């Protein structure tokens, strides 16, 4: 049994019809986080809920008898200027699914918004060059995925063609998401410390192994690689135990011969366990954050352009806005807005403002565990931001709330998802018209919210938790994994099931859509799975 899920459950687990027998109690998991963290630093939380069912659609308007409540004015801490504030906000429960009685949206009072030029869509390139597709983390693919979950080919990372010498951990696990090259090459990493390059041969039962990279004793844990325009693959690795680790960020090239990748350059990130996924800007700048929270902006040639100290991070990836600000959530309770240096001669970015999640908790009591590692304490966020075309920042937090934050750092609205330890770790996908957000949570399954006011449009309940950030294809099909071992394809308009694939093991990685119309996921037993229409 996986040591991160190995303590006796205190909540009965009722298997979903057709689901594998997987131990997935949250409380069981939270209790064992400390010992698991010492080995791998990968302490996320696993959940169990009501059986999967058809989606519930929210009523058009809240019930007339819904109570109202007054919440404190949202505030944001600003480095160089006065903190933006708003008038006290009157909260009303969002239109919610009948069974989600604790779910609500709280809207802040209207405020004068700073002028933000509509964010141009990130340049659409074939494949998936980084976590959640683009620097805004919209999760939108330019490709159309399958409508049938048929297994075409697989790769067993637990038994790779090249043995793993000095693995960081003997425990096989894949929590990294894949990225996809323009030619369809799949890049994905595992816990023992391998970064694999794989290809779909178009026939047979196996994905083709192309090359791999493994630094001695190093691992990227749940970090997802990113791709440069020149074909470079970027990823950070850490060596040593969580409390005595050092991290190095690498730019890798495919080998000219053999199966071992070439190191183009590397940057020493110093002490700490790096688990964050890098983001690549339109000009090729790579944004990556160390475990202690130091944000690096690195040129494509490996030169460090500038840095800034934010808060410690466990999993979240920086998002890049159209105006050049970088948004980085932290486990210290805050979302950081980072401005690049005003002068080309400066090597230090600045903190434009911070948004304190703890000042905006909503009316529903939280479910937390004092000292809980991996977000169990309800502080901060392990999710990554999604940025809308008007500059609004959307993000879920460890307190089970989903937030819309204005570009000046003030609260736009919040949505109270069903309460559970570690809340929301999945990054939201944004519809093509920017009207709807889709995200998974530790309880309640998949949520679809309106971006205007945070109103619930539909909810697809899942028995387990969702740490898999959803992928949205060109036709509006939404793909996600789950801890119950199922991969779902949903109609993003209605929440109805397109297909339901039983992987037989937990799926934490975000699905990736290939140019050939297939979708790739990975499970926590080390299987990389290519799904298609057959």
Task: Describe, in plain words, how this protein is organized in 3D.
With 534 residues, the protein is mostly beta strands. It is built from 2 helices and 38 strands. It has helices at residues 26-31, 33-40; strands at 56-57, 69-71, 76-78, 89-91, 104-107, 150-156, 179-180, 186-189, 195-199, 208-213, 218-219, 226-227, 233-239, 246-253, 262-271, 279-280, 286-289, 294-298, 304-309, 319-320, 326-329, 334-339, 350-356, 386-387, 393-396, 401-405, 411-416, 429-430, 436-440, 446-450, 456-460, 471-472, 477-480, 486-491, 497-502, 512-513, 519-522, 527-532.
Number of helices: 2
How far the N terminus sits from the C terminus, by CA atoms, comes to 33 Å
The poorly predicted ranges are: 1-52, 59-104, 109-122
State the share of residues found in helices, binned by percent.
under 10%
Describe the strand arrangement of the main beta sheet, using strand numbers: 1-31-30-29-28
- Class per helix and strand makeup: mainly beta
Strand content: 25-35%
The coarse silhouette is globular
Largest sheet: 5 strands, antiparallel
Q: What's the overall average pLDDT, rounded?
A: 82
In total, the number of strands is: 38
Radius of gyration in whole Å, from Cα? 21 Å
What topology does this entry show?
Layout: H1 26-31, H2 33-40, E1 56-57, E2 69-71, E3 76-78, E4 89-91, E5 104-107, E6 150-156, E7 179-180, E8 186-189, E9 195-199, E10 208-213, E11 218-219, E12 226-227, E13 233-239, E14 246-253, E15 262-271, E16 279-280, E17 286-289, E18 294-298, E19 304-309, E20 319-320, E21 326-329, E22 334-339, E23 350-356, E24 386-387, E25 393-396, E26 401-405, E27 411-416, E28 429-430, E29 436-440, E30 446-450, E31 456-460, E32 471-472, E33 477-480, E34 486-491, E35 497-502, E36 512-513, E37 519-522, E38 527-532
Antiparallel strand pairs: 1-31, 2-4, 3-23, 5-27, 6-38, 7-8, 8-9, 9-10, 11-13, 12-13, 13-14, 14-15, 16-17, 17-18, 18-19, 20-21, 21-22, 22-23, 24-25, 25-26, 26-27, 28-29, 29-30, 30-31, 32-33, 33-34, 34-35, 36-37, 37-38
């Amino acid at each position: 049994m996986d040591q991160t899920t190995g303590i006796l459950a205190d909540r009965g687990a009722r298997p979903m019809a057709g689901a594998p027998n997987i131990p997935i109690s949250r409380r069981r998991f939270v209790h064992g986080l400390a010992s698991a963290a010492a080995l791998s630093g990968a302490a996320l939380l696993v959940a169990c809920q009501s059986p999967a069912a058809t989606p519930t659609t929210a009523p058009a308007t809240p019930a007339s008898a819904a109570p109202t409540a007054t919440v404190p004015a949202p505030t944001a801490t600003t480095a160089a200027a006065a903190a933006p504030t708003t008038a006290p906000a009157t909260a009303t429960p969002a239109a919610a699914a009948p069974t989600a009685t604790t779910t609500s949206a709280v809207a802040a009072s209207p405020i004068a918004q700073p002028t933000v030029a509509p964010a141009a869509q990130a340049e659409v390139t074939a494949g998936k060059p980084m976590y959640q597709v683009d620097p805004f983390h919209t999760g939108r693919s330019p490709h159309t995925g399958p409508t049938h979950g048929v297994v075409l080919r697989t790769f067993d990372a637990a038994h790779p063609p090249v043995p793993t010498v000095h693995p960081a951990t003997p425990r096989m696990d894949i929590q990294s998401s894949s990225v996809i090259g323009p030619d369809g090459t799949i890049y994905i990493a595992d816990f023992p410390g391998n970064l694999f390059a794989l290809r779909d041969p178009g026939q047979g039962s196996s994905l083709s192994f192309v090359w791999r990279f493994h630094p001695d004793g190093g691992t990227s844990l749940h970090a997802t690689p990113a791709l440069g325009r020149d074909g470079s693959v970027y990823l950070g690795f850490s060596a040593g135990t969580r409390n005595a680790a050092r991290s190095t960020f690498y730019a890798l090239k495919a080998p000219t011969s053999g199966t071992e990748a070439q190191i183009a350059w590397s940057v020493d990130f110093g002490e700490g366990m790096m688990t964050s996924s890098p983001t690549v800007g339109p000009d090729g700048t790579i944004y990556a954050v160390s475990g202690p929270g130091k944000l690096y902006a690195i040129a494509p040639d490996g030169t460090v352009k500038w840095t800034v100290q934010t808060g410690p991070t466990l999993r979240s990836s920086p998002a890049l806005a159209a105006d050049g600000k970088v948004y980085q959530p932290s486990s210290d309770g805050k979302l950081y807005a980072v401005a690049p240096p005003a002068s080309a001669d400066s090597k230090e970015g600045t903190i434009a403002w911070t948004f304190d999640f703890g000042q905006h908790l909503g009316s529903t009591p939280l479910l937390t565990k004092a000292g809980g590692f991996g977000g169990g304490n309800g502080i901060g966020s392990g999710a990554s931001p999604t940025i809308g075309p008007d500059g609004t920042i959307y993000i879920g937090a460890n307190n089970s709330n989903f937030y819309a934050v204005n570009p000046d750092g003030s609260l736009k609205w919040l949505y109270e998802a069903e309460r559970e330890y570690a809340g929301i770790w999945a990054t939201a996908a944004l519809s093509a018209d920017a009207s709807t957000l889709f995200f998974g949570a530790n309880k309640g399954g998949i949520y679809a919210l309106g971006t205007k006011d945070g109103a619930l449009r539909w909810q697809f309940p899942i028995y387990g938790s969702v740490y898999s950030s959803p992928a949205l294809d060109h036709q509006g099909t939404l793909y996600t994994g789950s801890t119950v071992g199922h991969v779902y394809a949903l109609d993003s308009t209605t929440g109805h099931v397109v297909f339901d694939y039983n992987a037989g093991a937990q799926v934490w990685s975000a699905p990736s859509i290939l140019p050939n119309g297939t979708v790739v996921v990975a499970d926590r037993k080390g299987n990389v799975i290519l799904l298609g229409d057959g």
